[in-house]
Design goal:
Two copies of one chain form a homodimer. Chain A is built from nine helices and no strands. Chain A is mostly helical. In chain A, about 40% of the residues are buried. The interface between A and B is large, with 49 and 49 residues.
């Protein structure tokens, strides 16, 4: 029951924080939306900062698990797996009507110059994502699916940064066009 | 004199808004930083919203002028001009110690799901930038510098979105690494 209340707070906070950002998420809105009294909040979280960190950890864990599951799927080539990852991500964006975007990108843009502690957590999340991409690209090179002239590390960072840029533009246009352009350019012109 | 006060307010507001975002920029901080009394502010701006819009127009005008000047420079090939644009942008980021980022990207991330009027202005700014890039890429194709297999429109959007993603990551790492990776991947692997 206690666990259910905490999960409810984190999921409600995640939805609001993804749309409004960290600074503009009011605890009173989260509590009223979740139907949880203020006393319970401080039973689970030391502060709004602590709440934000736990929401980020929760989101990043699910995100990383999804990335890992897609990128290591058996019986499919490395670049096909990478394409499947982006296709799945586009499907998830469609479910959100191409709004909200990615909590990691949103908080990075908002807090990079503002909040050193959150920035440290965010840097680790980007680095974890990058390592999975890099391993996939190295495998693609070993299997001859990708030119050995490219640096898998640079390419992995380039791709996750470019994808976050496309997600940002998606929020603005409320359409999948930036994501489809990302797919088209990446898989017809870049990864070859 | 009046004009100087207005310019001072816009430039001060721009610095603060680029770092803290639109919602978290307090007018009292802008006024105290600029040394301007509140009454003067309302002489020049109807509201904080109006102030934000004028800051965005001011920033985007300078940004577009710089893009146009670099991308249309005589005596240099289209892709060399594009590379020069990104090199200049990196130099400007270095002057800001790789913090602050791009006001257009920052406000897009913050306001896309929040503020339809600002979003409309932001969409037009992205579209203007994209048109300059597209024209440059079309010229590169005519001159045989770029493969005709690529769609200049998709590629232009891909590049400006990817660049904004790299700027976001730059803010987090406080380094030029994401920008250098963008340059390396774009000009050795993508635009060919």
């Amino acid at each position: 029951m206690q666990h259910a209340t905490k999960t409810k707070l984190i999921e409600t906070g995640l939805e609001i924080m993804r749309e409004k950002g960290f600074n503009n998420t009011g605890l009173s809105e989260v509590l009223s939306e979740a139907g949880v009294p203020k006393g319970s909040f401080y039973h689970f979280f030391k502060s709004k900062e602590d709440f934000g960190e736990q929401i980020l950890e929760h989101y990043a864990r699910a995100n990383l698990a999804m990335t890992e599951a897609t990128l290591t799927q058996a019986g499919v080539s490395p670049l096909q797996r990478m394409r499947a990852f982006f296709e799945s991500a586009i499907d998830m964006c469609a479910c959100n009507d191409y709004s909200g975007g990615c909590l990691i990108g949103n908080l990075t843009q908002e807090l990079a110059d503002q909040n050193p502690k959150m920035s440290g957590i965010l840097e680790r999340k980007w680095a974890q994502q990058r390592m999975l991409f890099q391993a996939n690209l190295e495998e693609a090179q070993r299997e001859g699916e990708l030119s050995p002239a490219l640096s898998p590390g640079d390419l992995a960072d380039f791709l996750i940064n470019a994808w976050q840029g496309a997600m940002m533009r998606m929020k603005l246009t409320h359409s999948d066009i930036p994501l489809r352009q990302f797919l088209a350019v990446t898989f017809t012109s870049l990864l070859r």
